[in-house]
Design brief:
This protein has about 575 residues and is an alpha/beta fold. The chain is about 35% helix and about 20% strand. Belongs to the FAD-dependent oxidoreductase 2 family. FRD/SDH subfamily.
């Protein structure tokens, strides 16, 4: 079956819905393909807020937000992206309000704002109230609001479709191929412009806050075509996931006054970040928690967690502003934050790297400014280099709406100027070959075991703390797992609702993302942001103030080629000197 649209959006989370909305406002035909019903997309799990320098509670300025973004990214952030973002997010938040998003309010009726880790006033002097929020359901409210607006604008949705191939020929994107879960049919989508916004790949780790659908499909498909993935070594571990489960405990819980405590009840963040304590950036808090655990001060039966303490806060704050996480703790741990200390541990949370783009979302083909005509990306799938080596809290939702909007505007502008490109001959061939390969494997290997070994080994060897020998070992583990993957097969012969086929296909995508991440991390011989190496403790701006570009070696399977891209600098340079890590 074949479809034709001017602009095609892949993914219906915050970035995809914002891109689709603004493309539709550009007077072009728009369709959105999603693995899920749109309002079930993973953006709905974002709890804490969306940062913008509105100044509704305390004085604030976009320049301060820009500085915090650059500093939070450990100076690998492209500063032109940080400037565009810090300015545009202010208008974007007011725009969401005007669309009907039910933000929490100050007594004066303004959008409420609260403190959040890493957000400061006067370039780092003290914490500032910058996070705009809707209780602790901010992402959910963004999804609902943007979906309603897309329905109003006439965006066509194809739900429970899994994209299996990007149709790129002669440097131009011509559409995609997708598998329809309900019928088992393969569809070809012909488009003038395609926007990739399908989210991250956190399921490569054992403990993660990411939904089951976040398997890096489009990153892998892009990578398989010999195109680069940028800064894959930088993966953020959120410091507070519910112990054993990884379910996110919003940073807003610390913004409201929550305190991290070890087994003796000590507020240990005073030792690691004496100025802003529990509101330090996520990489610092995550490493601090792991240090406490490694030094024997963890809590719980396995001593592998620490406690978050809210018991000193008023009940109305806990059950009002933090209603969702309170319900999750009661449901999954049987603990009541009003009176109990809740055990938490770092959880794999967010990919700073991904498909490289320029400021307008156009996908880059190399580190020298080359691009793929008609192909755009936004959100966690993309790497506009806003987050650098470590994303600042609340900037994920801001990234979705700011760069999703820009991608939608520029994709529609491009689509109005061009004719439909010719489709490749037999556009479904590669998808059919992939499916045939999955069905015809020997079946000697169990894909569930391969997935388990990948997730556990990635957590152990390319997790919060890293070193060369462990990552060298992980390179070999992944080569073995990818070899074993060739001997799996799909036992279910049916076409309709073949979830086994989908899961085995997604495993292949995850193995690609893990391969690019591990090679990139092994190659970067410094510690910066979320990339912390025990064998290279210092940040090395002389040799490593540059972005990594990882390419799949199409001639030698299992090998990764590494290139680089310059960091865009624009004023915040005074902190550019090597510095030792403080644990």
């Amino acid at each position: 079956m074949q479809h034709r649209y001017d602009v095609l959006v892949i993914g219906a989370g915050g970035a995809g819905l914002m891109a689709a909305l603004y493309a539709a406002k550009g007077n072009v035909s728009v369709a959105c393909i999603s693995k899920l019903y749109p309002t079930r997309s993973h953006t709905g799990a974002a709890q804490g807020g969306i940062g913008a320098a509105l100044g509704n509670v305390a004085e604030d300025h976009w320049e301060w937000h820009m500085f915090d973004t650059v500093k939070g990214g450990d100076y690998l952030t492209d500063q032109d992206a940080a400037e565009v973002f810090s300015k545009d997010i202010i208008d974007a938040v007011y725009e969401l309000e005007h669309m009907g998003l039910p933000f929490s309010r100050t007594p004066e009726g303004k959008i409420a704002q609260r403190k959040f880790g890493g957000h400061t006033r006067e370039f780092g002097k003290a914490a500032v109230e910058r996070s705009c929020y809707a209780k602790d359901r901010t992402g959910h409210m963004i999804l609902q609001t943007l979906y309603q607006q897309n329905v109003k604008e006439g965006t066509k949705f194809f739900n429970e479709f899994h994209v299996t191939d990007l149709l790129i020929e002669d440097g131009r994107c011509r559409g995609v191929v997708a598998y329809e879960l309900a019928t088992g049919e393969i569809h070809t989508f012909h488009a003038k412009a395609v926007i990739l916004a399908a989210g991250g790949y956190g399921r490569i780790f054992k403990i993660t806050s990411n939904a089951l659908t976040l398997t890096g499909d489009l990153m892998s498909i892009y990578y398989r075509k010999g195109l680069p993935l940028e800064d894959m070594e930088f993966y953020q571990f959120h410091p507070t996931g519910l112990a054993k489960l990884g379910i996110l405990v919003t940073e807003g819980i610390r913004g409201e006054g929550g305190i991290l405590r070890n087994d003796s009840g000590e507020r240990f963040m005073e030792r690691y970040a004496p100025t802003i304590k529990d509101l330090a950036p996520r990489d610092i808090v995550s490493r601090s928690i792991i240090s406490e655990i490694r030094e024997g001060r963890g809590v719980g039966r396995d001593k592998d967690a620490v406690n978050i303490d809210l018991t000193h806060l008023p009940r109305e704050v806990i059950e009002g502003k933090l209603a969702e996480i309170t319900d999750l703790a009661r449901t999954y741990l049987g603990m009541d934050p009003v009176k109990d200390l809740v055990p938490v541990q770092p959880t794999a949370h967010y990919a700073m790297g991904g498909i490289p783009t320029d400021l307008n979302g156009l996908c880059l083909s190399d580190g020298n400014g080359g691009s793929i005509e008609g192909l755009y990306a936004a959100g966690e799938q993309a790497c506009v280099s806003l987050h650098g080596a470590n994303r600042l809290g609340t900037n994920s939702l801001g990234d979705l709406v700011v760069f999703g909007r820009r991608a939608g505007i520029y994709a529609a502008q491009y689509a109005r100027q061009v004719e439909f490109p010719d489709l490749p001959d037999d556009p479904q061939r590669d998808t059919k070959d992939m499916f045939d390969g999955l069905r015809s494997g020997s079946g000697k290997e169990n894909p569930a075991l391969i997935r388990k070994e990948m997730q556990e080994s990635m957590m152990n060897n390319v997790g919060i703390f890293r070193n060369g020998p462990d990552m060298e070992k992980q390179v070999e583990i992944l080569k073995e797992l990818k070899s074993r993957y060739q001997d799996v097969n799909v036992g279910d012969p049916s076409l309709r609702y073949n979830s086994e086929l989908i899961e085995v296909m997604e495993l292949g995508f995850m193995l690609d993302c893990a391969e690019a991440m591990t090679a990139s991390a092994l190659n970067r011989t410094e510690s910066r942001g979320a990339h912390d190496r025990a064998d290279y403790h210092t940040r090395d701006d002389v040799n490593w103030l540059k972005h990594t570009m990882a390419y799949k070696d199409l001639d030698r399977p299992g090998n990764v080629l590494i290139g680089y891209k310059d960091v865009a600098l624009k004023g915040f340079t005074r902190a550019f000197e090597p510095k030792a890590r403080v644990y």
